[in-house]
Amino acid sequence: MTPGIRVSDKATTRILTIDNPGKRNAFTGTMATTLLKELDRAEADPEVRAIVVTGSEGCFSSGHDLQEVLANPETAGDPVANAAFARPSEILTPVIGAIDGPAYAAGFILALNCDLRVASPNARFCGVGAAIGLVPVGGQLSRLLDLVGYPVAYRWLATAAPFSATEAERHGFVTEIHDGDDALEGALGLAEAITSVSPSVVAAVKAGLLHTLRHGSDAGRAAEPHLAALIRSLPDGDEGVNSFLERRPPTYPDRPAELHDQIAEVLA
């Protein structure tokens, strides 16, 4: 089978599967470009309420194909070539990583930039940069601090030593360890919980939290009433209150197609 990114849907969740099992799901050829395109396509689709990124055959991703890196070493730190791996943290659709086996190098960066990470017990993580003479990029020197703090981030990156799903969960990097056949099952369960609530509020929550991380708590606090006013103009609030009073599950509409742009305008 040709290496690539497989795309499937389960209800309102888009599943993107890294599929190159012969090389432990290494990114080769146009795979990174395809992943970026599919993330953006899902972000633009109001019917997609969550994205799950996973790997095929018990492996998340070993990173870039090293033979290609040796042939084109300048791509290793190129932000354009690596845009796909940081993209989950830049879009407002929630992204969950379902991680089995190794998530190394670019695979680690991709997992790092997901909003949540569900791992199977055999998952392993590694930021390999120091071991192969490359500065860790893609959020490893920035976003990682928001998740685990300085001492843990420094040890993981300065030693370039693999660490287990148990250690990752202990430090809050992994949201949960799914004790099942694979992490995808647990990730889809988490996605179902997210997709059952208001997708417009979920988008505002992610935007507000990221805005606070980037600009500080004062900026985040100032943004809250503006985000609330934007969402109040939608039918979601009425549906939520009415469903509660009528003792029935809420049925929230898809987010408006222009909502992500409106949120960006509010935060600007």
Succession of helices and strands:
EEHEHHEEHEEHHEHEHHHHH
Rg over CA atoms? 19 Å
The tally of beta strands, per DSSP, is 9
Q: Percentage of helical residues?
A: 40-55%
Mean pLDDT: 95
- What is the overall silhouette? globular
Structural class by sheet pairing and helices: alpha/beta
Secondary structure tally, helices: 12
Termini distance?
45 Å
Brief write-up:
This protein has helices at residues 31-44, 66-71, 83-86, 106-113, 143-148, 150-159, 165-170, 183-195, 199-215, 217-232, 236-245, 259-267, and strands at residues 4-10, 13-19, 50-55, 95-99, 102-104, 116-119, 124-126, 163-164, 176-177. By secondary structure, the protein is an alpha/beta fold.
Search tags:
six-stranded mixed sheet; 268 residues; three-stranded mixed sheet; 9 strands
